[in-house]
Write a structure and sequence with these properties.
single chain
Length: about 110
């Protein structure tokens, strides 16, 4: 029962620490107007036809590594697929397996495989 009370006290304290602060409405309105103006100044996103999403299946089974350092994916090339590894921070993708019949990728828990 003591552990339960400690947990309740900790949760109550966290609730107080992370509770939203009271902000005057004028400040919030000005910030919102500035954010809207900044978004409107950006170039419009291109509109793609629906068929663009249905036609190409070039990349499949895209998976972020458990540590977030790499992205592994399968790339379809004709009848086979290749396994690529891409650094999440940027850089060139590396071919790990040139030809594979794999349809799905999964990382090991430690992210090494």
């Amino acid at each position: 029962m003591t552990k339960f009370r400690e947990l309740c006290g900790t949760l109550a304290l966290l609730g107080l620490l992370f509770a939203p602060r009271q902000v005057p409405a004028a400040d919030t309105t000005a910030e919102l107007r500035n954010a809207i103006a900044a978004q409107r100044a950006l170039p419009r996103a291109p509109q793609l036809p629906r068929t663009a999403f249905l036609e190409s299946r070039g990349l499949t089974s895209v998976q972020l590594s458990p540590g977030g350092d790499y992205v592994a994916y399968l790339r379809e090339q004709g009848e086979s697929r290749s396994l690529f590894l891409l650094p999440a921070a940027g850089g060139k993708p590396r071919v790990l397996v040139a030809r594979s019949q794999a349809e799905q990728l999964l990382w090991s828990r430690d992210g090494r495989w």
